[in-house]
């Protein structure tokens, strides 16, 4: 292997070790996106709307780091922005700030619409051009069922019992309740629940929201997990203890960490504003330059005639008509389902819903990139379907799913001893090196995080989700750096301005890393 390749591997190893250690050191901020919903009305003045949105997020950020809740109003007239964010009651302030930072990075996907809401497993955020603070019911209210495990009647009874207790106690307890009830006759098995109303609701509105939400959510039984995503509240039950331990937030060390993370959050707000501004410029540029048939249409015709093409009916049958019981997860542009083909092969299907040319282009971009790259540490694309009501990507199925399910779960985490963690780190680094240096087309993934590292039956790492990837020719040394994904790519602007060392050392803590190690991290981030 070339000397430069060894250097790249060592840099990726260092960064991935840091990410794994951080995952062990923190409580679970539960930053997994459950659902994002956008309003139907478009903004009419970007030059006013975007600054108002960014200012509202900044104001909310100040409140979140001290109380776990924030609301803000900026602007006037039709360009007024109303924002609200709240972390669920079991999150520490540190985990709350991390969850909020993720939420406000994802919510701008709703632009150019005037508002939207996002439910994460640890927090909630909403932005609109009207005051919504007292709303507790709406047309988008729904339950989301998870996990494919059917539970016993005894578990159902325990789940109903603990949910009812939460509905009764939360309204008079500031809108928050959590609980656990042991399953009768089952050793070491319990039903867990979390209920949280937004703090803008009065006691009566909170009660009505939770009563409606609980009825809807309990419809998920006998499945082992369910969530209720309601206008005024959030509920979740599970057979897994997903709740964080309730500890005080008053220690000086915790306060210092929260302040440090809040500085990063402010930088993320700035980055989001820049990204939205770039989107506006790019959209206008494309409108002026578009001529002839677009690339997406050309790709669609090519794929229909290729061996990668699956019939929509084949995939629909394999997933049980996209049965909620087969749902594996939710991504930025679609939902992932497990399926079984007629020949017995297990597959993972990403179901994408496109409402504009940009997202359709992402679909064909992903097919173009993944189909041309093969490596033992990259998820294999089996094919796609683009002739049905929505576009589908078909991947190999990996039974252990994503790395974050292990590093943020105490029980599953025991499976990953240090030898196995080392194998995952090396495997992920080798996959990245192949993308960067050894494939025909050089690829920058731009969204490496634990949830995008999948594990096969032997817990070997495979990099997934190339939807945000961007390729460039061998003779080009730079690509455009529109912000996408997680905190790591958000540090690129800081690196260009000579602030990478301060940016990243604030995130990981100066006391743990030597200066030369921090400089090495910055070199990895800027590649």
UniProtKB/TrEMBL annotation:
Write down the Pfam families for this protein, in alphabetical order. PK_Tyr_Ser-Thr, Stress-antifung
Q: So where does this one cross the membrane?
A: 256-281
Catalyzed reactions per annotation: L-threonyl-[protein] + ATP = O-phospho-L-threonyl-[protein] + ADP + H(+); L-seryl-[protein] + ATP = O-phospho-L-seryl-[protein] + ADP + H(+)
InterPro entries, per database record: CR_Ser/Thr_kinase, GNK2, GNK2_sf, Kinase-like_dom_sf, Prot_kinase_dom, Protein_kinase_ATP_BS, Ser-Thr/Tyr_kinase_cat_dom, Ser/Thr_kinase_AS
Domain of life (superkingdom): Eukaryota
User: Can you tell me which residues bind ATP?
Assistant: 350
This protein's record includes keyword ATP-binding: yes
One MF term from GO for this chain?
ATP binding
Question: Which Enzyme Commission number(s) are listed?
Answer: 2.7.11.1
Q: Secretion signal: which residues?
A: 1-27
Protein's UniProt keywords contain Metal-binding: no
Q: What class of enzyme is it?
A: transferase
Alphabetical UniProt keywords: ATP-binding, Glycoprotein, Kinase, Membrane, Nucleotide-binding, Phosphoprotein, Receptor, Repeat, Serine/threonine-protein kinase, Signal, Transferase, Transmembrane, Transmembrane helix
Q: Where is the Protein kinase domain?
A: 322-527
Sequence ranges assigned to domain Gnk2-homologous in this UniProt record:
31-132, 137-242
**Protein name in UniProt:** non-specific serine/threonine protein kinase
